[in-house]
C-alpha cells in the first residue's frame, strides 16, 4: 500500500457539492480531520438547494470545521446538465474569488447521478494544478465504485460525522436511505480495505510525482 503524504504546513481545501449534504456525506470525516490541523483553510461551494436546505448546509459547514460560509450557486436540483454553462461559470467564479487550493474535493466523475457526474467531470477542467479527489455518495443506484485512495478515520471522527449529519440535515431524516447504519457501513467497508476501522475513500484520477531537485 503506497502512502500519499500531504504537506505539514497550511493547506487551502475546496469542497464542492452538487447538493446540500453531498460534501458532508462524501468527505465529512476528511473535513473534520483536516479541521483538527488548525492550518487547513476549508471553503465550500454548493450548486443547488432550497432555502431550507441552504440553511442546513450553512450550519453543516460550521459544524464540519469550515471557517467560511458556503457559496451557493442557486441552480435547480437534478437539472445541472441543462445548465452546463452556469455550472462552469459558478466553478470558475469560485476559483477566481478564492486562494489557489492545494486540494479539491468533488463527486466522482462516473457517479450515476447526473448532477454529481457533471460536477465530477467538469472540476478537472477548472482546476488543473491542485490535487483533485473524487468522493463517493451512497445511494440506490448501486454505483459504488472501486476507489484508489483512502483516508483512515479515527472512530471518534466517524461517530462525530454521523452525529453531525443527523444534527445538520433534519430535512433528510424521512428519506428511506438516511440512517446511521448506512453511513457507518460504508466507512467500515472502506476501513477494511484500508486496514483500519473506518475510512473515507476517493478516486484520484491524476497524481503528479516529484523526486525532488
Summary keywords:
Rossmann fold, 7 strands, 38% helix, 213 residues, 6 helices, 7-stranded mixed β-sheet, 20% strand, alpha/beta
Task: Describe the protein.
38% of the residues lie in helices and 20% in strands. The protein is α/β, with parallel strands linked by helices. The protein has one domain (11-203): Rossmann fold. Strands 3-2-1-4-5-7-6 form a seven-stranded mixed sheet, with helices on both faces. The two termini are 25 Å apart.
Shape: globular
- Residue-averaged pLDDT, rounded? 95
CATH-level-2 architecture: 3-Layer(aba) Sandwich
**CATH homologous superfamily label:** LmbE-like
Roughly how many Å is the radius of gyration? 16 Å
Q: What string, H for helix and E for strand, traces the elements in order? A: EHEHEHEHEEHHE
Assign the structural class, choosing from mainly alpha, mainly beta, alpha/beta, alpha+beta, or little secondary structure.
Answer: alpha/beta
* Count of discrete structural domains: 1
Terminal CA distance reads 25 Å
Number of strands: 7
Looking across the biggest beta sheet, what order are the strands in? Answer: 3-2-1-4-5-7-6
* CATH fold-level name: Rossmann fold
Low-confidence stretches: none
Strand content: 15-25%
CATH class categorisation: Alpha Beta
Number of helices: 6
Largest sheet, if any? 7 strands, mixed
As a percent range, the share of helical residues equals 25-40%
Amino acid at each position: 500500500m503506497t502512502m500519499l503524504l500531504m504537506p505539514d504546513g497550511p493547506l487551502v481545501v475546496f469542497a464542492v457539492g452538487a447538493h446540500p449534504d453531498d460534501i458532508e456525506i462524501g468527505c465529512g470525516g476528511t473535513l473534520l480531520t483536516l479541521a483538527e490541523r488548525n492550518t487547513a483553510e476549508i471553503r465550500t461551494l454548493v450548486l443547488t438547494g432550497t432555502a431550507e436546505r441552504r440553511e442546513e448546509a450553512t450550519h453543516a459547514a460550521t459544524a464540519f470545521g469550515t471557517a467560511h460560509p458556503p457559496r451557493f450557486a442557486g441552480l435547480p436540483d437534478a437539472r445541472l446538465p441543462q445548465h452546463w454553462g452556469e455550472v462552469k461559470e459558478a466553478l470558475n467564479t469560485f476559483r477566481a474569488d478564492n486562494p489557489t487550493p492545494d486540494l479539491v474535493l468533488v463527486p466522482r466523475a462516473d457517479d450515476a447521478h447526473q448532477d454529481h457526474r457533471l460536477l465530477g467531470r467538469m472540476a478537472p477542467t477548472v482546476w488543473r494544478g491542485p490535487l483533485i479527489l473524487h468522493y463517493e455518495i451512497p445511494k440506490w443506484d448501486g454505483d459504488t465504485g472501486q476507489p484508489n485512495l483512502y483516508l483512515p478515520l479515527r472512530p471518534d471522527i466517524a461517530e462525530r460525522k454521523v452525529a453531525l449529519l443527523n444534527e445538520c440535515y433534519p430535512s433528510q431524516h424521512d428519506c428511506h436511505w438516511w440512517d446511521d447504519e448506512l453511513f457507518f457501513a460504508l466507512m467500515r467497508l472502506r476501513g477494511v480495505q484500508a486496514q483500519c476501522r473506518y475510512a473515507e475513500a476517493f478516486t484520484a484520477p491524476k497524481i503528479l510525482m516529484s523526486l525532488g531537485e
